[in-house]
Amino acid sequence: MADVYVIHSSKDNSTTGKIVELLRGKWDVWWDYNLVGSYSEAIEHEIAKAKCVVVVWSSDANESKPVREEVHLADRHGIQIIPIFLDETEMMYPFVSRSGVGFVGWNDLDSHPSFEQLIAKIANVVSPKIVKTPQHPSPIPLSWPSLFMSVSSHETQLVPQDAVKALRLFEASAILVSAYDLLPIRRPKGIIQELRQVHDDGGFILIDSGNYEATRRGDDSWTSGKFAEAMRDVPHDWAYCFDVMTPKVNPKAAIESVVKAVTRDRVAATQNILPIVHAPKESLSGYNVKDLPHIVREVAYSLSAPLIAVAERELGSGLIERAKTVKRIRQELRKLPYYQPLHVLGTGNPWSIALLAAAGADSFDGLEWCRMVVDQQTHRLHHFQHFDFFKYQMSFAESQVTLDAFDDGKIEYAGRVALHNLDYFRQFNDKLTHALKTNQMESMLVEIIGPASVKQIKDAIPDLFE
């Protein structure tokens, strides 16, 4: 006996199939797509037992004699009928005044207001099945927000081993290292020992998939198998999956591909694998983020991972657009029965970090600390070679390591710049944490980027600070 019986025209099979698939998450649903045997007998038998009938109404359904007969049959059995409208065609007489749901703008997602209204209407007639609550993810031993200092061999001023050594000396709390640079055939000598010391000192080590470096270098030989090989014997807390760089546009297919990648890498590389969700690239430039919030939520729900990541460059053309996307993702994640931390990959600019944190992101990583030099007074990034004009700021650093490096002739130029930047980002993270906890993000953004820019942001995202 079906909870919900779906009446439709065969010309609407595609849309009806999507509706049925989503409804089956909450009810037992019957429709005639796979019907074998006597059509009339099966229809009469199933309708008589159904608790509720959903009529997928359209111009094609209106012209279908079997659809009309099924509606009348359901009415004779006294079954509650809920019409949904795929176009502007009115429901057949005498059901014109029957309350229904407009599906003209439906986007095939269960998070769309029209589908949510349909769920509510059916639930008033038939109670949904009790769905098992997803397992609460085991928390990562980090406080939010968190800034990961990234390490990479691609276009940085410090080679990976020197970068890890600097982070160890500075006692950085969280670092991200590319698996691409850890493949045994090119693994820097001594880097494993440095990472092990970071880990022993209480530092959190996150390993990235290495696809950033492989893509930038055009290295098509970098595969999930090599990623798994690179992970061997590497001290780490968690690692990101070998991500699906060219995701499907279809949300269901995109979700399945990420879940499959994480499952594969949990077997081949390490059990502690986190998901990355990419947005599909559009024909010329930019990315399609329309369904990204829904996909992120469903991947998080399916995997119960303690952290889920998106790439900043894919969230929009400009920073305000990217903040809007992060806010939409956070709104979707709030639908989960637990708090789901969100990481934004490739975000090391203070302006970006502050705004995206205000929009709902929890952690970030970036290479700016070993690529650029930051002016601690203006929060602006400058070319690495411009450190001469900001070296004086080391004299009022909070870190003793940075203070000691100010006049230490044994520390080379690049090392001084790195320690100067690390001191800034530690202070910045402390201020960001305080601002988020005390609801003072607007004031912090005014300090960082100025009141005129904050006004522009508020005009574009009126509810950002609510």
From TrEMBL:
<dbReference type="GO" id="GO:0006400">
    <property type="term" value="P:tRNA modification"/>
</dbReference>
<feature type="domain" description="TIR">
    <location>
        <begin position="4"/>
        <end position="117"/>
    </location>
</feature>
<dbReference type="Pfam" id="PF13676">
    <property type="entry name" value="TIR_2"/>
</dbReference>
<keyword id="KW-0808">Transferase</keyword>
<dbReference type="InterPro" id="IPR000157">
    <property type="entry name" value="TIR_dom"/>
</dbReference>
<dbReference type="InterPro" id="IPR035897">
    <property type="entry name" value="Toll_tir_struct_dom_sf"/>
</dbReference>
<dbReference type="GO" id="GO:0016740">
    <property type="term" value="F:transferase activity"/>
</dbReference>
<dbReference type="InterPro" id="IPR036511">
    <property type="entry name" value="TGT-like_sf"/>
</dbReference>
<protein>
    <submittedName>
        <fullName>7-cyano-7-deazaguanine tRNA-ribosyltransferase</fullName>
    </submittedName>
</protein>
<dbReference type="GO" id="GO:0007165">
    <property type="term" value="P:signal transduction"/>
</dbReference>
